[in-house]
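User: My collaborator sent over this chain with a note saying "see what the structure looks like." That's all I know about it. Can you take a look?
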Amino acid sequence: MKRITPSEYQAMAELRYRIRLFLREGDAAARSSGLEPQQYLLLLAIRGMPEGACAKIQFLADSLLIRHHSAVELVDRLESHGYVRRSRGKEDRREVLVSLLPRGQRVLERVVQQRINELRAGGRQLIRAIDAVLSNGKRPR
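Assistant: Without extra context I'll predict from the sequence alone. Here is the result:
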Protein backbone atom coordinates (compact mmCIF):
# COMPACT_ATOMS: atom_id res chain seq x y z
CA MET A 1 0.00 0.00 0.00
CA LYS A 2 1.32 3.44 -0.97
CA ARG A 3 2.09 5.79 1.89
CA ILE A 4 0.11 8.99 2.13
CA THR A 5 2.33 11.99 1.52
CA PRO A 6 2.32 15.21 3.55
CA SER A 7 1.00 17.07 0.50
CA GLU A 8 -1.91 14.61 0.26
CA TYR A 9 -2.78 15.25 3.91
CA GLN A 10 -2.62 18.98 3.23
CA ALA A 11 -4.81 18.59 0.14
CA MET A 12 -7.39 16.57 2.10
CA ALA A 13 -7.40 19.13 4.92
CA GLU A 14 -7.92 21.97 2.44
CA LEU A 15 -10.72 20.07 0.67
CA ARG A 16 -12.44 19.37 3.97
CA TYR A 17 -12.20 23.06 4.89
CA ARG A 18 -13.62 24.20 1.54
CA ILE A 19 -16.53 21.73 1.71
CA ARG A 20 -17.36 22.73 5.29
CA LEU A 21 -17.21 26.40 4.34
CA PHE A 22 -19.56 25.83 1.41
CA LEU A 23 -22.00 23.92 3.63
CA ARG A 24 -21.86 26.54 6.40
CA GLU A 25 -22.55 29.33 3.93
CA GLY A 26 -25.48 27.31 2.55
CA ASP A 27 -26.91 26.88 6.03
CA ALA A 28 -26.63 30.64 6.59
CA ALA A 29 -28.31 31.38 3.24
CA ALA A 30 -31.19 29.06 4.13
CA ARG A 31 -31.63 30.62 7.58
CA SER A 32 -31.57 34.15 6.16
CA SER A 33 -34.57 33.14 4.02
CA GLY A 34 -36.45 31.70 7.00
CA LEU A 35 -35.64 28.04 6.36
CA GLU A 36 -33.75 25.50 8.40
CA PRO A 37 -30.89 23.95 6.38
CA GLN A 38 -32.63 20.56 6.12
CA GLN A 39 -35.80 22.26 4.91
CA TYR A 40 -33.83 23.99 2.17
CA LEU A 41 -32.23 20.69 1.16
CA LEU A 42 -35.62 18.98 0.97
CA LEU A 43 -37.04 21.76 -1.22
CA LEU A 44 -33.95 21.50 -3.42
CA ALA A 45 -34.33 17.72 -3.70
CA ILE A 46 -37.94 18.15 -4.83
CA ARG A 47 -37.09 20.84 -7.37
CA GLY A 48 -34.05 18.90 -8.57
CA MET A 49 -36.09 15.85 -9.54
CA PRO A 50 -35.85 14.80 -13.20
CA GLU A 51 -38.66 16.12 -15.41
CA GLY A 52 -41.80 14.06 -14.95
CA ALA A 53 -40.56 12.26 -11.81
CA CYS A 54 -42.53 12.44 -8.56
CA ALA A 55 -40.90 13.19 -5.21
CA LYS A 56 -41.80 10.32 -2.90
CA ILE A 57 -41.03 10.48 0.81
CA GLN A 58 -38.53 7.61 0.68
CA PHE A 59 -36.67 9.23 -2.23
CA LEU A 60 -36.46 12.48 -0.25
CA ALA A 61 -35.21 10.64 2.83
CA ASP A 62 -32.57 8.86 0.76
CA SER A 63 -31.58 12.11 -0.95
CA LEU A 64 -31.00 13.85 2.38
CA LEU A 65 -29.45 10.74 3.99
CA ILE A 66 -32.06 10.76 6.75
CA ARG A 67 -34.61 8.26 8.03
CA HIS A 68 -38.09 8.03 6.55
CA HIS A 69 -39.79 9.41 9.67
CA SER A 70 -37.41 12.40 9.71
CA ALA A 71 -38.37 13.19 6.10
CA VAL A 72 -42.04 12.96 7.08
CA GLU A 73 -41.45 15.46 9.90
CA LEU A 74 -39.65 17.83 7.52
CA VAL A 75 -42.51 17.59 5.03
CA ASP A 76 -44.98 18.23 7.87
CA ARG A 77 -43.20 21.46 8.83
CA LEU A 78 -42.83 22.63 5.24
CA GLU A 79 -46.48 21.85 4.54
CA SER A 80 -47.60 23.79 7.62
CA HIS A 81 -45.73 26.85 6.27
CA GLY A 82 -47.28 26.53 2.83
CA TYR A 83 -44.08 25.52 1.02
CA VAL A 84 -45.10 22.04 -0.15
CA ARG A 85 -48.19 19.94 -0.76
CA ARG A 86 -48.59 16.27 -0.05
CA SER A 87 -50.75 14.08 -2.26
CA ARG A 88 -51.43 10.39 -2.88
CA GLY A 89 -50.13 8.46 -5.87
CA LYS A 90 -52.67 7.88 -8.65
CA GLU A 91 -51.83 4.20 -9.25
CA ASP A 92 -50.77 3.35 -5.71
CA ARG A 93 -52.74 5.31 -3.11
CA ARG A 94 -50.23 4.26 -0.44
CA GLU A 95 -47.57 6.43 -2.07
CA VAL A 96 -47.11 9.91 -0.66
CA LEU A 97 -45.95 12.43 -3.23
CA VAL A 98 -44.57 15.84 -2.32
CA SER A 99 -44.61 18.87 -4.61
CA LEU A 100 -43.54 22.48 -4.29
CA LEU A 101 -46.14 25.18 -3.86
CA PRO A 102 -45.48 28.68 -5.29
CA ARG A 103 -44.34 29.98 -1.90
CA GLY A 104 -41.82 27.14 -1.62
CA GLN A 105 -40.62 27.76 -5.16
CA ARG A 106 -40.02 31.45 -4.41
CA VAL A 107 -38.04 30.90 -1.22
CA LEU A 108 -36.03 28.11 -2.84
CA GLU A 109 -35.21 30.29 -5.82
CA ARG A 110 -33.87 33.04 -3.55
CA VAL A 111 -31.56 30.66 -1.71
CA VAL A 112 -30.38 28.85 -4.84
CA GLN A 113 -29.65 32.14 -6.62
CA GLN A 114 -27.54 33.24 -3.66
CA ARG A 115 -25.71 29.88 -3.63
CA ILE A 116 -25.03 30.03 -7.36
CA ASN A 117 -23.67 33.57 -7.00
CA GLU A 118 -21.41 32.42 -4.15
CA LEU A 119 -20.11 29.51 -6.20
CA ARG A 120 -19.44 31.72 -9.18
CA ALA A 121 -17.52 34.14 -6.95
CA GLY A 122 -15.49 31.64 -4.91
CA GLY A 123 -15.96 28.21 -6.40
CA ARG A 124 -12.52 28.12 -8.01
CA GLN A 125 -10.97 27.54 -4.56
CA LEU A 126 -13.16 24.48 -4.08
CA ILE A 127 -12.24 23.20 -7.54
CA ARG A 128 -8.53 23.71 -6.80
CA ALA A 129 -8.90 21.78 -3.55
CA ILE A 130 -10.58 18.87 -5.36
CA ASP A 131 -7.94 18.96 -8.11
CA ALA A 132 -5.16 18.84 -5.51
CA VAL A 133 -6.59 15.66 -3.97
CA LEU A 134 -7.11 14.06 -7.38
CA SER A 135 -3.57 14.86 -8.43
CA ASN A 136 -2.01 13.12 -5.40
CA GLY A 137 -1.60 16.29 -3.38
CA LYS A 138 0.33 18.18 -6.05
CA ARG A 139 -0.89 21.71 -6.61
CA PRO A 140 -2.57 21.95 -10.02
CA ARG A 141 -1.63 24.92 -12.15
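A starting point for your reply to your collaborator: The domain at 6-134 is CATH 1.10.10.10 (Arc Repressor Mutant, subunit A).
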